[in-house]
Input
Amino acid sequence: MHTQIPIKEGLFTWPSSKPQLLGSRCSRCAEATFPAQPDCRNCGSRETHIVELGDRGTLWTWTIQTFMPKQPYHSSETEATFAPYGVGYVEMPGGVRVEARLQPNTAQQLKIGMPMQLAIIPFRSDEQGNDIMTFCFTAVTEE
Ligand SMILES: [Zn+2]
Output
């Protein structure tokens, strides 16, 4: 079992059996943001606090990424192993839209408005053999 390290601190609760996406909410105007920001982009207030945004949302829009993203994208994929994947915005309860990689990766499997579930997946390995974990959204299979 490798150690699983989040790709970036503060994006999601980890380790957790039921990880939640983390964002920030403005104490003055209640605007929520992902990823968390020290300043409110709505009213400019510096009074923001970290909130859990939940682990489910609905698909707001999507596309299929058919080529390797440019640097600094850095996964364990190579041109030879790269497979097209879905990418889109998932709207969380409260209205925050989160750009994320999507697990269903064909146009037939993706539909605007479909329920999506947060998942934490291995992205690549670091030099020590640890798994660097990132988040994605998968289609909800059960209610
Ligand atoms: Zn604000």
